[in-house]
Amino acid sequence: MITNLHVKNLALIDEADVSFRPGLNILTGETGAGKSILLGSINLALGQKMTSDMIRSGADHALVELVFEIGNPEILQKLRDLGVDAEDGLLILSRKVQDGRSLCRLNGETCTAAKLREISSLLLDIHGQHEHQSLLYPDRQKAILDAYGKDRLEKPLARMEDAWHRWKEAQKELDAYALDERERQRELSLLEYEIKEIEEAAPCTGEDEELEKEYRRMANGRKILETLQQIHLLTGDHAAGDEVGRAVREISAVAELDEKLGPLAEGLNDIDGLLSDFNRELVSYLDSFTFSEEVFYQTEKRLDLLNNLKARYGRTLEDVLQYLEEQKRKQEKYVRFEEGRREAEEACRKAQLERDAAAEILTGLRKETAAALTEKIVEGLQELNFLAVDFEIRFDRSEQCHKDGWDEITFLISTNPGEPVRPLSRVVSGGELSRIMLAIKTILADKDSTETLLFDEIDTGVSGRTAQKVAEKMGQISRTHQVLCVTHLAQLAAMADHHFGIFKTVENGAAQTQIGELSREESVEEIARILGGAEVTETVRNNAREMKELACQHKAAAGTHK
Q1: Which end of the chain has the smaller Cβ count within 10 Å, N or C?
Q2: 456 phi and psi, to 5 degrees?
Q3: Phi, psi of 482 (to 5 degrees)
Q4: Does one domain contain both 222 and 103?
């Protein structure tokens, strides 16, 4: 359940801190006081859309923090399955908007708004002002039926979905055989070409990597050989060597004529000796060096072939070989096309029979569940002041089977004696629709593991005796669930276990929304305000006080007094 809500700098709220408790938590206030803002902040903490213009004027950020205390082991396990550890049963959700960015945290750790939305359905069920309109949609009506029969229908629904997926796969396989003979031959020809190309190349996994290493080694060797051969041409016979030898002979002939030429002659002799030694070593190295142009050419050619295969059939040779196996399987399929098509037709027929059998079992169980749900809804509507109500759940067969079966569900109702039942959309008013939704919520609450239910003005369009019935029904739900409810009904406010008043004040020229839990007398005064409107007389206060006392007596008799 929700134990605390902290809101700062959101719309009209400067700062609010509210502690909610088990049972029926009622929130009331004048129109425009900010009731919807407060409950909207809960939606924001649960990951709903939040924009920077929601920040209170003059503030640089807005913050919403929501604290849950979770005692249901089933919910705790589902949270763990989602990777959420509610340590000591506590879960703190926070949302901050600043500089146009939204920051979400879950127990202090940053998370995404999508993550908050994912877990929100486990934590509470929110019924907004217009949600009852969803009752008009057949898909929603079927979901309500399945939720009511969850214990009986969960496994049949899972089997139905599994059978439907198997049928879809079988149908997909059969559709693959929808080719004319010319197209089949064209596909077969392409497959044969690709298989032949890969098999003739006969690639091996990792072969390209080894060849790349060998190619780089040989490419470097070729460069070395070409460079050394060029050097030998420059320094060997008939090149630098001859010229140095001639220079040695020339300087030796004149060195005797001038003793100063002696050192020069010796230096030139040294150069001649060094060059001769260098050329001998160079020739020796070249004689021992091996490089095959043919091997280099073959390696280069093989690499080009393998790289071409990778460019066409896969990123790696392993991918190419896998592609080859896939194409062989396709080739086999096209070779034995007629036989394969007959097998696919048989597999699809079997899958369809299994699908329809699962759907038939599901429909039967749904009809049994519908009978029980119909009885419960009629009982609940009578408790909500539908004095003469007839309710039915009609089954139709959809044009095509879906993963939840063939059934199309329609809720039919008659609220006047002698009138035939008709679809909800053609009969009920807004107030009646909200009461029907409340009756359904009450029925489903006993089967729902969600601990907290939030109602935002579900009492729209009801008054008088009906309002009292709605209040009693809300009190019934709060026996097993924490309920947060925004209301404008005095009867419902009187039924509160914990009554919170929402007020709008003006401070320093700025409007502010404030909230606080009301004492017994403050609650009576707020109920009197709802009853009396602009002027609250002592008579109205006495009426409010009596209404509060009667509500307490009713809760005590029902065992729900807090």
Answers
A1: C
A2: -110, 100
A3: -75, 130
A4: no
Q: How far apart are the first and last CA of the chain?
A: 16
In 3D space, the residue among 267, 230, 269 whose CA is nearest the CA of residue 249 turns out to be 269
Query: Are both 16 and 109 inside the same structural domain?
Result: yes
Mean pLDDT of the chain: 84
Residue 522 belongs to some domain of the structure: yes
Q: Which domain holds residue 109?
A: 1-129+457-562
Contacts of 256 (CB under 8 A, 6+ apart): none
DSSP single-letter state for residue 452: E
Structure tokens at 293: 């142009």
Distance CA 312, CA 317 (A): 11
Q: What number is the average pLDDT over the span 215-221?
A: 78
Q: Hey, what are 474's tokens?
A: 């809300």
Place of tokens 């994912």: 118
Question: For the ranges 48-52, 175-179, 201-205, which has the lowest average pLDDT?
Answer: 48-52
For 161-179, give the DSSP string.
HHHHHHHHHHHHHHHTT--
Instruction: Compute the distance between CA of residue 381 and CA of residue 432 in angstroms, rounded to an integer.
Output: 9
For 490, the token pair is: 């005095």
CB 291 within 8 A of CB 218: yes
pLDDT given for residue 562 in this prediction:
47
Distance, in Å, from the CA atom of 327 to the CA atom of 157, rounded to the nearest integer, reads: 38
CA distances from 146 to 70, 120, 152, 156, 375 (A): 26, 21, 9, 11, 16
If you count them, how many residues does the chain have?
Answer: 562
> Can you tell me the distance from the alpha carbon of 228 to that of 172, in angstroms, rounded to the nearest whole number?
67
Would the pLDDT of 283 be above 90?
no
Residue 75 lies in a domain: yes
Question: Rounded to an integer, what distance in angstroms lies between the CA atom of residue 320 and that of residue 313?
Answer: 5
Residue after which a domain boundary falls, among 315, 350, 382? 315
Residue 212 sits in the same domain as residue 125:
no
**Contact at 8 Å (CB) between 331 and 191?**
yes
User: Going by DSSP bridges, is the β-strand pair 2-10/422-423 parallel, antiparallel, or unpaired?
Assistant: unpaired
Q: Are residues 99 and 216 in the same domain?
A: no
In total, how many domains does the chain have? 2
Within-domain flag for 518:
yes
What is the residue type of 331? Q
Evaluate whether residue 275 is within a structural domain: yes
Q: How confident is the model at residue 451 (pLDDT cuts 50, 70, 90)?
A: confident
Q: What is the CATH number of the domain that holds 63?
A: 3.40.50.300
